[in-house]
Task: structure prediction
Amino acid sequence: MRLRIDAARRRSQESYRRQQRFVNDVSHELRTPLTIIRGYVDLLEACGASDPEIFKEAVTSIKTSAQNMQNLVESLLFLARADQGDQPLTKVPVDLDELLKRFVEDYRSPRVQISKLMPCKIFGDGEFLKKMFTAFLDNALRYSPPDKPVKVTLTTEDNFAILKFIDRGIGIAKEDCEKIFDSFYRTDKARTKTEGCESSVGLGLAVAKWIADRHDIKISVDSKPGEGSTFTLKIPTI
Ligand code: ADP
Result:
């Protein structure tokens, strides 16, 4: 009896700690964009809209900060719904090569190249799969120099499709590779690189991992700091 009470107490303490950490993380993430918005509004108030350069800078920064907050709230809502089992997937047979090709076309970045595309069929929810691809591509572009291409390859191996997102960017240290899928985790390099720009909140990979798990997709990361990263998705085919 006593043991059961102790275990219940530990669970409730752990859940309380998790909640506190979460509130702390969210507050922290909201504080930066709010401070930026407040600062620029004060500046506009002080010098009016008379200086076109300041006006332009203020509008751009306020817009980026608002977008960051919107991204944060949308990812939080997604994960909260997922947590409550309120994120239903509609899985159907999907031609992954066609979905991927259309997705990259719609993504509209001249830096993204599909260099291999083998036909394969999987069982999945197209909208969720595209949301997952977005997280990997956004990161590949965000964490690599603007003159470097990002490659996407789709091949097959036994009963699996192997999808890779390959960048030649800042890379990820070995000790960070496991942690980057945790909510709000960002490497120090990523923090410096994305300071002040849209829209690093540290939730993209948590969302991607949730979607991957619902499709029995295994994700592995191969990365060298300073050389680049490859995210590999091993997807069961039908
Ligand atoms: P964020 O919004 O910060 O990009 P993610 O959850 O998508 O959040 O990624 C978590 C962290 O993983 C990033 O902050 C970054 O440190 C690291 N990361 C993810 N993808 C890459 C990549 N392709 N190259 C370098 N670092 C990456």
Remarks:
- Residues 2-83 form a domain with the Helix Hairpins fold (CATH 1.10.287.130).
- The first helix runs from residue 2 to 47.
